[in-house]
Design brief:
The protein is an alpha/beta fold. It is built from 12 helices and 21 strands. The chain has 3 domains: 6-142 and 265-327, FAD/NAD(P)-binding domain; 151-262, FAD/NAD(P)-binding domain; 347-445, FAD/NAD-linked reductase, C-terminal dimerisation domain (Enolase-like, domain 1, 2-Layer Sandwich), CATH 3.30.390. The protein is 30% helix and 22% strand.
Length: 460
């Protein structure tokens, strides 16, 4: 007789947890999952999906302007933030219902309550304790705000999707994915946006040319980008709706809203993870091996709670691989190399593989092919927004080991080329591919001459 209530209990019904639960159930396991919020997790409820919808909305101001260059006369447009948020909420509600049906149709038992560890095989959900042969931690991450005076007056991406009104003036603190994306969203919708970042270029970890190019283009679009800048204090004047923000250099900025996008941390608070025996790093990250297994043999973790590579498709892949390995009899480890990613900044970024600096470190001598150009659309729109494309090739093998694009449709373009990079195709094979004309993507198969610079960095 099976001594456990379930074969698998999943903590967290986000992208990774739901995939793991469904696949494990398809393999015949008795599966339960718990979620204290709506099913779908950060990506569906308060991340990728609603953010992309707002990105779409923020593009229309430029589209209306660009139409004139193509012979269109457009009446003065009017934007309604409440209408946009209501439409977004309807779509998120639909997706939440879709995920609920997925779990139900898969035979997964859902506890719509917070779960916490009671023991190595036991979880408390509400007023009930359930046991499971295997437990999967898939609780994701949450925004982190530095503990400066007045930080309680600021919001994060969690609250940004539900603001009652569009702020007229907003300070975005941070320089990563979320900060750059929301700076573009608010700027495109008509807010006056200042972005403060403590480093010398946005998007730390990306190729240096990409970082500098994105920062310049964001400024060209009207975002006030304050680099090497740190916020020291936020103060609300009594009786005033505005906020005074003091920076480390002594300057003060008055805004209507401050949003921190200063990183995310593993969401382990309240899990009572110490009761399970699972080891975590000081930052809360759950330690796992290549099979997503913790130091406790029957407890696993996937997604942002492990902080291996915090991307939704990666969490889904990890969850699927876990279920196949544990319940499907197919041992599948997860590699985190050559994973494509995108930043839906304005202009957007698409990238796969190594940056120029990392490629030099891993492969030694490299060839870099780079092109900067005005897209065909803007020859008539009059907009000065340029595109950057960059190929990185390991000289010894001539394999393309990195692709970086900044410009319209960059994420869509990189998704297809990521297959080529993952498959180890060479520069000669790129060159032998006939481009589709006229497209921006054809540039990736028509660049023939690497460009070298005196300082050792290539690409211009």
């Amino acid at each position: 007789m099976n001594p456990f209530d379930f074969d698998l209990f999943v903590l967290g019904a986000g992208s990774g947890g739901v995939r793991a639960a469904r696949v494990a159930a398809a393999h015949g396991a008795r599966v339960a999952i718990c979620e204290e919020s709506r099913v779908g997790g950060t990506c569906v409820i308060r991340g990728c999906v609603p953010k992309k919808l707002l990105v779409y909305a923020s593009h229309f101001a430029e589209e209306f302007e660009d139409a004139a260059g193509f012979g269109w006369t457009v009446a003065r447009p009017k934007f309604s933030w409440p209408d946009l948020i209501a439409a977004k909420d309807r779509e998120i509600g639909r997706l939440n219902g879709f995920y609920l049906r997925l779990l139900k149709d898969s035979g997964v038992t859902l506890f719509q309550q917070r779960g916490s560890f009671v023991g190595a095989h036991s979880v408390c959900v509400g007023d009930r304790v359930v046991s499971a042969a295997h437990i999967l931690i898939a609780t994701g991450g949450r925004p982190w705000i530095p503990g400066i005076p007045g930080s309680e007056h600021a919001i994060t991406s969690n609250e940004a999707f539900d603001l009652a009104e569009l702020p007229g003036r907003i300070l975005m603190v941070g320089g990563g994915y979320i900060a750059c994306e929301f700076a573009g969203i608010f700027n495109g919708l008509g807010a006056n946006v200042t972005q403060s970042y403590r480093r010398d270029a946005v998007l730390r970890g990306f190729d240096q040319d990409v970082r500098e190019f994105v920062g310049q283009e964001m400024q060209n679009k009207g975002i006030c980008l304050r680099l090497l800048s740190e916020v020291e204090q936020i103060h609300r004047q009594p009786g005033s709706a505005g906020l005074n923000v003091r920076f480390a250099d002594g300057t003060v900025l008055e805004v209507d809203q401050v949003m921190f996008a200063t990183g995310r941390i593993p969401n382990v608070a309240g899990l009572d993870i110490q009761n399970s025996g699972v080891e975590v790093n000081p930052d809360g990250r759950v330690r796992v091996d290549e099979f997503s297994r913790t130091n406790v043999d029957h407890i696993y973790a996937v997604g942002d709670v492990t902080s291996r590579l915090n991307l939704t498709p990666v969490a889904i892949y990890e969850g699927h691989a876990f279920a196949d390995s544990v319940f499907g009899g197919k041992a599948r480890s997860v590699t985190h190399e050559l994973v494509p990613s995108a930043v839906f900044s304005q202009p957007p970024v698409g990238t796969v593989g190594f940056s120029e600096a990392d490629a030099q470190h891993h492969f030694g001598e490299i060839d870099v092919y780079s092109s900067r150009f005005l897209p065909l659309k803007h020859t008539l729109s009059g907009r000065k927004e340029r595109t950057l494309m960059k190929l990185i090739v390991a000289r010894a093998t001539q394999k393309v080991v990195g692709i970086h694009i900044v410009g319209q449709d960059a994420p869509e373009i990189v998704q297809g080329f990521a297959v080529a990079v993952k498959s180890g195709l060479s520069k000669d094979q790129f060159d032998a591919t006939i481009g589709i004309h006229p497209t921006a993507a054809e540039e990736l198969v028509t660049m023939r001459h690497p460009v070298n610079r005196q300082d050792g960095r290539q690409g211009q």
